[in-house]
Amino acid sequence: MPKISACIVAYCDYDEVCAAVRSILHYTPAPDLALYVVDNGSPDGCGRQLAETDFGDSRVTVLPLEKNIGFGKGHNYVLDRLTSDVHFILNPDILLTGDVLEDMAAWLLARPGAAMATPQLRYPDGKLQHLPRRKPTPWLLLARQLAPKLGGCFKKADDHYTMQDEDLTVPRRIEFCSGSFMAVRTDVFKEIGGFDPGYFMYVEDADLTQKVLQKGTVWLAPQFSAIHAWHRAPMRDAGKFKMQLVSMGRYFKKWGCGKGSV
């Protein structure tokens, strides 16, 4: 089996992070697994608690940071430590229900040209999540925000964006791999320098996907699955909305506003 590593970037919610860590340890028997938990300066003391927690497993390394450096930089913090074949980028609201990491890593490495993949994610109640997406455009991102409220042409565009007009029950290439659960060849992740540190939050996963696509193909692998609570932050907060706009501006300046190819 391939050598695997994984990283969770945490920000508050100690209990949720612990549940994710324990599910990974329980369902991943690989003795050489390296699981990193980077706490992004949680103001609720989550980092201190994690550092003091005995998970009963030497495969876990907790790295508490003094301040919140952002999602991408948090994951990049372990970049120089990685010696694996495949690295997993995981949200703290992910729960495994089987030995997904080893099997998915083996599948990725066995597929010629493949550099990144994501599994099928479901809500805790079993409902399907529509996370595989086409390459973002300004129109598709606008439709994503307005579809739940206005429906109509916005919903049609959003369904297209989230590839609901495609058969997602079989492995297929995608252009936007959600940062909730990414499997990426470690050599590729290191070669491209990880996430663009210019993003603090939002759209950095779309940016990373585009960087990976310059090195290989990106896949939805629905034969593998996991639970994802998916805590979507409401956009009522003016600061978060501004941050999202800044990130979108950076993304489109780098990659353009045109359509993808999938």
From TrEMBL:
The superkingdom listed in its UniProt entry is Bacteria
The name under which this protein is listed is Glycosyltransferase 2-like domain-containing protein
Alphabetical list of SUPFAM superfamilies matching this protein: Nucleotide-diphospho-sugar transferases
For the Glycosyltransferase 2-like domain, which residue ranges apply? 5-192
Q: Which Gene3D superfamilies match?
A: Spore Coat Polysaccharide Biosynthesis Protein SpsA, Chain A
**Keyword annotations from UniProtKB, A to Z:** Glycosyltransferase, Transferase
Q: Which GO terms describe its molecular function?
A: glycosyltransferase activity
The organism encoding this protein is Gemmiger formicilis
Pathway it belongs to? Cell wall biogenesis; cell wall polysaccharide biosynthesis
What family does this chain come from, according to its entry? Belongs to the glycosyltransferase 2 family.
Signal peptide range equals none
Keyword flag Transferase: yes
